[in-house]
Amino acid sequence: MKKVIIGMGTCGMSAGAQQVYDRMQEILSENPGTFALSRTGCIGMCYREPLLEVREGDRRTIYGQVTPETAAGIFDSHVVKGKVFDGNVVYSLDGKGGDGGTEADFLRQQKRIVLRNCGTIDPESIDEYEAAGGYRALEKALRGMTPEKIVEEVKASGLRGRGGAGFPTGLKWSFAASYKADRKYVVCNADEGDPGAFMDRSVLESDPHAVLEGMIICGKAIGSDFGYIYCRAEYPMAIRRLNIAIEAARGKGYLGKDILGTGFNFDIKIKQGAGAFVCGEETALFASIEGQRGMPRIRPPFPAEKGLWQKPTNNNNVETYANVPWIISNGAAAFAAFGTEKSRGTKVFALAGKVVHGGLAEVPMGTTIHDLVFNIGGGIKAGRKFKAVQMGGPSGGCIPVELDNTPVDFESIPATGAIMGSGGMVVLDDTACMVEMARFFLDFTQSESCGKCTFCRIGTLRMLEILARIVGGEGESGDIEKLQELGRQIKEASLCGLGQTAPNPVLSTIRFYRNEYEAHIAEKRCPSSACSALVDFKINPEKCTGCTICAKNCPVNAISGKPKQTHVIDNSVCVKCGKCITSCNFDAVYKS
Amino acid sequence: MITTAGREENFNYRLWRYDGAPGELIPLLQSAQDHFGYVPRKAINYIAGVTGVPESEVYGVITFYSQFRLQPMGKYVIRACDGTACHVSGSRMIIDTIEDELGIEVGGTTEDGIFTLNTVACIGCCSLAPVIMINDETHGQLTPASVRKLLRELRRREKAAGQKAAAG
Ligand SMILES: Cc1cc2nc3c(=O)[nH]c(=O)nc-3n(C[C@H](O)[C@H](O)[C@H](O)COP(=O)(O)O)c2cc1C
Ligand code: FES
Question: Is residue A272 a contact partner of residue B33, using CB atoms and an 8 Å limit?
Fold first, then answer.
């Protein structure tokens, strides 16, 4: 029987997947037994959601941008008559190794290890996870491997932490394994606070069992019987699916007492974050699990010795754990075959911003930024010019188009002044002002600073004030040097990674776009026409209906025009408050 | 709709199950907020009592985390995304428009108790930027004009419902 599968991750839901699902359910109840209806997570093509797949054995056809109406058409044509619906087929597999569809390129160039099940299985069904080979690695690890052997295997794979710093995972596990204690903890960092990154969310929503399986294997390796998943509260669907997965795994004896009859005990509890970026830092995360304000602690002692509740603890990122079952099943060598010398395996990137194909892409380490943005990402929206990518979020930096042949790995990216980070890649076009970008990130870290150390708390505020002045058209000569000096001091004197990296977006944009800073300061000009204070406001005569609302809202009477006729802004009077833009009902006002 | 008494009962039930395990302060506050829509004074009082954590410290935890609120929220909670992807797609303009339309600032609630406006950093729908969430519904690819339309539609609906209730 044919299966109709709807992509129901957060991205699909916000594009209207529920309506498509409901329509299909209606059709199914009118035509019982004609097909089986199920759901899946995110296949990564967020830019084509909602997605609907018709599957028959190995033959798969995925339709994009489906509406309740086209869903009915797909039923009539494809499900009933077996004829591919004349609509938006984004990807298809003929079951004999051939693929097609408008977006085949997007998937063809990827190597999916972490995302192996994302968008193919029902995340709420443990049976489907098992059918896809799930929990086989756990069985192998528990029955056929000693803890030392598991650690050795992870070490040999070359896996490095995907949470940002890239610390070798096997080595980290060996530290936690080496301490003796009555209790040890396995912690999964699912806080994903970096704005513009959504890899971990997709994995948790689309393949929660893979993360659980990785954590249980880690428990065996380091000698722990309890794990916590610290998930941010902004991800309600991920939390719900994790809860379903944990229940199901307990039911099948993969979690709980005497797992698979091997005498090994392990259980997992979910802790919800409460909205604090700094809680992604592992020692702050422990404090938050313990019920305190999430403030980082001084290291050493390192978590492997004294972590959560002062017990030996191993903390890894979601994606790190999701790699583990694949490594145990397929062997370290198969994993190490992908990637570069020092960065093995693959990395998932969240492509966002001004890129045509916004979504998730998993590629071997060492793929260049150019390949990611153009071959997989489909280039820049609206045919504009590629300017830079921002990587590593508020701790990272911008990599300019001139360096777009930089391979993504843990050595090459930091060499540009950015960081790998957790995998958010925000693509910027020529309308982005780099000074304003730097201000934006610093504003974020400044408000998220926990306030424990002075340099981070006050230093970032001073930097922010300077940046606000520059974008406001009141920059002074010497500001750039002040920013660099403050940045250097904050990096050196801060306690945790938040402060140590907060100046990065500023320093990296000064390094590559000093001329933009200078134009703002010396010429009071924003070269990208983005900073309100430094641009002219104009009205597009084609959109303006002469409704007079902008003129009524203008606090300084800078707008003139008769009713029903195009209005004009007098920029010598205008104070750049932006009221005209926000009040216009026709999006007719723009900056230039 | 849950009555206030019902809410209190549920809340007590949740506390009643509190097993004295350490580290439960945040989940307790979360359950209080779930039931009341915010963390009321008496909940702070009560939680401090059962956990033995001083009230001042409970308060410190509440104000540290952005999720917790000490004031009631509106019927529609708007979470406007100001994450990186939305920011480069003009989210600031969207937020300004909402502030202007509702006459409140970020963090505020309209006088009639209908709308609360908050910002968040990334909802995870970056490919639909700029994005806002109204309660659990996501709205993407917004412009100043379309967000104004959306809010006015909700206002109209509220007004109609209010009149109907008054007439009936
Ligand atoms: C301010 C700050 C925020 C962080 N946020 C996250 C996060 O959201 N997710 C994450 O996995 N790691 C985050 N980290 C890194 C963690 O401290 C830790 O290094 C990581 O979870 C280790 O996992 P890994 O070895 O698998 O990479 C953050 C670090 C800092 C300093
Ligand atoms: S930045 Fe707004 S949804 Fe991600």
Answer: no
